[in-house]
């Protein structure tokens, strides 16, 4: 039984041994405890539910975790107590490892919002993803456990290629939407961005598998998206564009992955005036604290923005300590220990 809230059964945490609010300590600065409530992102950088659930549940029991600031490199500490967290937003392709704990997490006072990615792309694009039928079963089970309002289906990113042409997306999206009718009310999408590392992976797949990758123009994208909009509406869903403002309108809503208004719908006590803090161009997200780490997801998606090296991700998964305060501890700060 998880013990996560001061308002219910107490956590076995001694706050005397944690850094107090104030100047940064040797471990970094303390964020969240005794201050305004924060949104926790878990995580845009990796799949915590799939690979690091044991670590997350341990950190929730302890009431805090640490994370490395991506720009300053500082080690920061943040409270994970329910009274300090507005919501935990989870990105995943496999939430099943969290299923046994969901009831206790919600009973303790935690509010959870899941972004569940289901695309069903062929193996060269998603080499080690769960099978589509299994993902659909897990998404439906997740919705049964936490409610459709707490689950967003991500058909994201859209990759147009000789293996996944427009007709593939029209048929695949319709098929998935039909299977998920009633389980979700929102579906988010974006088109893949051809960043340098993404383009390099696509070029390798072109050499090895003969796949041609296409970059549709705005008119071509709009034509596809409007048909996806209609398919979504036919199954009780609204389509939301993530960082694709030129595609918003005529029934396509702007997607905000960390959406304060959506969180207000989950819990009516939200009165924080958190700022919008975009993570990239055209992003509409509210500020949050991401507790994940780059190069730690091993699903092997060819289009992934957060994993530069799959081998590095495998190494970091092997090095991961579920009892550490950090999801993955960089070598330069390993002498400080964890816990």
Question: Can you describe this structure?
Answer:
By secondary structure, this protein is α/β, with parallel strands linked by helices. It has one domain (26-325). 29% of the residues lie in helices and 14% in strands. The chain has 9 helices and 11 strands. It has helices spanning 48-51, 53-62, 99-107, 132-146, 166-180, 196-209, 218-233, 260-266, 310-319; strands at residues 29-31, 38-42, 64-68, 75-79, 85-92, 112-117, 151-154, 186-189, 238-241, 252-254, 289-290. The strands form 2 sheets. The chain has an 8-stranded parallel beta sheet with strand order 10-9-8-7-6-5-2-11. It has a 3-stranded mixed beta sheet with strand order 1-4-3. α5 (166-180) links the parallel β7 and β8 (186-189). α5 packs parallel to α7. The protein is globular, with a radius of gyration of 20 Å.
Low-confidence stretches: 3-28
Strand order of the largest sheet: 10-9-8-7-6-5-2-11
Secondary-structure content class = alpha/beta
Strand count:
11
Main β sheet profile: 8 strands, parallel
Mean pLDDT: 89
Q: N- to C-terminal separation?
A: 21 Å
CA-atom Rg in angstroms: 20 Å
Quickly count the domains: 1
What is the strand content? 5-15%
